[in-house]
Amino acid sequence: MLEARVGRLESSLQRLAEALEQLAVRMDQLAAHVDRLALRVDRIDQRLAWLSGDALERRYRERAHSYFQGILTRIQVVPADAERAARRAALLERAMEVPVIPAVAGEQILPDAEAEAKAARVWCVLDGRAEPPPA
Predict the structure, then answer these.
(1) Is the pTM of this model over 0.85?
(2) CA separation, residue 36 to residues 29, 39, 46, 50, 78 (Å)
């Protein structure tokens, strides 16, 4: 009787070991699937961030007067980085003999571009907030 119980126990343990082995294989498959999904989500996140930034820049271009009317008049929208904005503003100021304020706009600004904007005394409008250049 004890031998029969031990036999059944050994058989149960063998089935349990096989089930655990199958579970380990499925877990490895699941982990690989989750890794692939994480890569896809990262790509989607990058695309969404790009689309969001592009949409904001488009809104700034299309509605520049609405966004900037508090700080700028006679607005001319051109594709510009801080250096080009400062250079064009200086040219327009000399040509028109009126003060011209350079500005750039977007969702965010990279640290190098921010330093460039500050050095060139360019206004930055970031995600709807206008930040003047340092005094």
Answers:
(1) no
(2) 11, 5, 16, 21, 41
